[in-house]
Backbone:
């Protein structure tokens, strides 16, 4: 369970906490993360900041007349870098949470949420040296692994990931054995099963109470 709790009504908090947990889980079971796309984003961002900072210092020390030509170049470069940064976020990363590989199997996972919908969506692309990349979407409510008061519970989250993504389940078979994956990947039926079990327990209690009452009446 998480050491700190979040607001269970804040979709950004739910998503960010889950995204962090996803990366930690996959790295924890041996997936080697590929940070190439993140590194490109960081280089572009830091370069834009450096240009803005250098322009400010030059203007402060040398004055506008001496630096206005370079300032125009810096503004154009900053605009280009900022445009590339936006393109990279929206069309290359597209919500990328984790990209990495283990035992020759590569996994790329992008996450998203929809407004007013407390559901976690993952677009999962898997590939290997012997197969072409394939992409599928999986989803489930955040309540699968968040408590009502906002605490993250790791085990059901790991079971869902391992049962829904075969490459992960092959590594973490304790969380999702092959013959259990279909059941674990569908929280709906599990919920119904739990409800049925509870109903059965209630009926058993009712029957026991009824029998006890009849015995008491006979004794009386």
Residues:
């Amino acid at each position: 369970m998480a050491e700190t709790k979040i607001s269970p009504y804040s979709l950004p908090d739910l998503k960010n906490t889950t995204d962090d947990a996803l990366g930690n889980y996959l790295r924890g079971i041996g997936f080697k993360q590929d940070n190439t796309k993140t590194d490109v984003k960081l280089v572009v961002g830091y370069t834009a900041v450096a240009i803005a900072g250098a322009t400010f210092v030059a203007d402060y020390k040398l004055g506008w007349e001496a630096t206005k030509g370079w300032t125009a170049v810096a503004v154009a470069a900053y605009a280009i870098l900022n445009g590339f940064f936006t393109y990279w976020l929206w069309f290359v990363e597209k919500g990328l949470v984790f990209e990495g590989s283990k035992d020759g199997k590569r996994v790329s996972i992008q996450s998203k949420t929809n407004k007013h919908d407390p559901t976690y969506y993952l677009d999962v692309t898997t590939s290997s040296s012997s197969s072409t990349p394939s992409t599928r979407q999986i989803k489930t409510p955040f309540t699968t692994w968040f408590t009502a008061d906002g605490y993250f519970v790791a085990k059901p989250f790991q079971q869902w990931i391992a049962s829904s993504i075969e490459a992960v389940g092959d590594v973490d078979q304790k969380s999702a054995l092959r013959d259990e994956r279909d059941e674990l990947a569908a929280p709906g039926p599990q919920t119904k099963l739990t409800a049925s079990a509870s109903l059965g327990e209630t009926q058993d209690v009712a029957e026991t109470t009824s029998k006890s009452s009849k015995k008491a009446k006979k004794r009386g």
